[in-house]
Amino acid sequence: MAGQSAIPDDPGMDPWPFRHLVLRTPRLELRPDDDAGMLELLEVARRGVHRPEEMPFSMPWTDLPHAEMSLGALQQRWRLRAGHTAASWDLGFLVRHRGRVIGTQSLMAQDFAELREVSCGCWYGLEHQGQGFGTEAWAAVLAFAFDHLGATHAHAAAFVNNAGSRAVSRKLGYRDNGTRRVLQRDKIALQVDQRLTPAEFRRPDWILQVEGLEACRELLGA
């Protein structure tokens, strides 16, 4: 019908094939972010991501008023989508449990075709923490990177006092790879760099299900 637009059903014909990419675990579904899902994620953030006296992020975005934080988060994801190239990408997977967004798990790379290295980051709403969702989603993107994209190394970072994040990374097999000083809330804080190879990865007892990857490979340098 004239005046109507349609998203191609064939991922190979879609200019943004990431809308068809999905990772599935026993409890979770991970899809690259879209605007509707981001609005759900921002509502999760409004209800709280961490205790006020803590700050797990290098950039303290959760200190901002909700309206400012929400606009900034949307603009950041729009910039990352718009700037996506095979040489520089950041997939911000929205993590869903029973159809509801509960957090986000990022998978990032620079010059992946040559270096075969990825980095990971994540956060979840307070009400969804402590249930193993973070470990499950993190394991999902690692399995995706190692087994489906051909990554040879994965990196992560956490502040020394972020016991929860460091416990999850150790559970997955990461090893500490030095420290660095960074500013956090205008104070110097110590951050631990972590590194993981496919051989060190402590795999879950389930097999990751992946759909829609083939049309995305060229845009990931894979």
From TrEMBL:
Task: Report the domain of life of the source organism.
Answer: Bacteria
Question: Which residues belong to any copy of the N-acetyltransferase domain?
Answer: 28-197
| A cellular component annotation (GO) from this entry | cytoplasm
Which Gene3D superfamilies does the UniProt entry name for this protein? 3.40.630.30
* InterPro entries for the chain: Acyl_CoA_acyltransferase, GNAT_dom, Ribosomal_N-acetyltransferase
Q: Coiled-coil annotation: which residues? A: none
Q: Where are the transmembrane segments?
A: none
User: What is a single Pfam family found in this protein's UniProt entry?
Assistant: Acetyltransf_3
Q: Which of UniProt's keywords are assigned here?
A: Transferase
This entry's Gene Ontology molecular function terms read:
protein N-terminal-serine acetyltransferase activity; protein-N-terminal-alanine acetyltransferase activity
SUPFAM superfamilies assigned = Acyl-CoA N-acyltransferases (Nat) (SSF55729)
Q: What is this protein called?
A: RimJ/RimL family protein N-acetyltransferase
Organism lineage: Bacteria, Bacillati, Actinomycetota, Actinomycetes, Pseudonocardiales
